[in-house]
Amino acid sequence: MTIKKLKTFAIVTIFSLGSLPMMGQDLLARQAPIDKKMKAVDSVALSRLIQNEMYDLPSSDLYSDWDNQFAHRATELPDSFRIDLRGFCMPTTSRVLTSNFGPRWGRQHKGLDIKVYIGDTIRAAFSGKVRMVKYEARGYGKYVVIRHNNGLETIYGHMSKQLVEEDQEVRAGEPIGLGGNTGRSTGSHLHFETRLCGVALNPALMFDFRNQDVVDDYYMFRRDTYQREGVLANRLRGVGGSEVSGDDIELATAAPAATYTSNVRFHKVRSGETLSSIARKRHTTVAALCKLNRIGKNMRLMPGQILKYN
Fold first, then answer.
1. Which SS3 state, helix, strand or coil, does residue 135 take?
2. Which of 17, 157, 165, 226 would give a disulfide with 191, using CB separation of 3.0 to 4.6 Å?
3. CB-CB contact of 235 with 101 (8 Å)
4. Burial (CB count within 10 angstroms: exposed 0-12, middle 13-18, buried 19+), residue 190
C-alpha cells in the first residue's frame, strides 16, 4: 500500500470514528419521542392499575350501582361480612350522645345523635367517595353520604354547611361539613348513620363516642344477630349505658362479634403533629406506625385522625 493510500485510509477512519458520537446523539434524539410515548403509556397503565385496585374493594362486591338520588335504598344483606374499622377517624370530637339508635317517638331512629355546636368540624369516618351532598327540609337537612372502601356507607345529617362535592374522594379525617341544626332538628347536633347495603346498623356496634374509639379492628356483621347486637351496643355504649346485666351477657354470648382488644393503643392526631413526632411520643418508629396503620411515610395526617401505635 502506498503512502498516499495510507493517508487516505487514516483520514477516512478518523472521520468515521468522529461521527460515532453524532450518530449516537441522532439515535437518542430519535428514541426520545418513543421514550416519551412509552412513559405516557406507563402512566396510563399505572393509573388504570390504581383505579382497578380502588374498585377491587369490599364495597365493589356489595353495591351494583352508584346513584345520587337516594340517601339509602335497602338491598339484600350478605349472611356475614367483615368490616374493616382500621384507619378510622371519629366524625366529631364530641363525647356526648343525645339519642340512641332504635325506637323513638313511635318510629325507628336509624342513627346516633351526637351533641355538636353550629360550626363544629365534622370529618369523614373512613376513606371513601362522596355519593351525595343534598338538602332535605323535613329530614336530614344538609347532609352528606359517603361510600367507604370497607363496604359501609355513612350519613352525616343536620349540618350547617357541606364542605365536599359529590363524587369527591375523601380520606378518613378530612373535613366534610360543619355542625348545624338544619332539617328536622330540635337543636344543633350531628345525626350519624352507618349503613350496609342500605340497611341501617347501630353505629354503637362499631363506634364508642364516649371513649373516642372504635370497638375493635374489625366488626363481623352477621345477618341473623346484628339486631340483637345493636340492643347490646346501646346498653354498653349508648345514652346512659354502662351497666351490663345478665341479659347482656346472654346477648354477648349469642353475638360475640364486637369486642375490645385490651392490648391495642391508639393515638389521636393533633394539629401540627407528624409521624416522626408521634413515633417519638409513643416510643415507637415511623416504620412501625406505617405498618400498623397501612399508610405511607409521606401521608398527610389530619387532626382528629386515629393511629394505632402498638
1. strand
2. 157
3. no
4. buried
Q: Are strands 266-268 and 306-308 parallel, antiparallel or unpaired?
A: antiparallel
Average pLDDT for consecutive 10-residue bins of the chain (310 residues)? 58 54 54 53 55 57 85 91 94 94 87 96 96 95 96 97 96 96 93 96 95 93 94 90 51 39 67 89 87 79 78
Helix, coil or strand: residue 127? coil
CB-side neighbour CA atoms (13 Å) of 194: 24
Question: C-alpha 163: how far from its chain's center?
Answer: 16
**How does pLDDT run across 181-197, given as a tens digit for each residue?**
999 998 999 999 999 99
Within 13 Å of residue 168, how many CA atoms lie on the same side as its CB? Answer: 16
* Rounded Cα distance, 62 and 154, in Å: 15
pTM recorded for the entire structure: 0.65
Rg (CA), the chain: 29
185 touches 141 (CB < 8 A): yes
- Grid cell in block for residue 279: 413515633
Phi–psi pair at 273, nearest 5 degrees: -75, 150
- Provide the 8-state DSSP code for 184: S
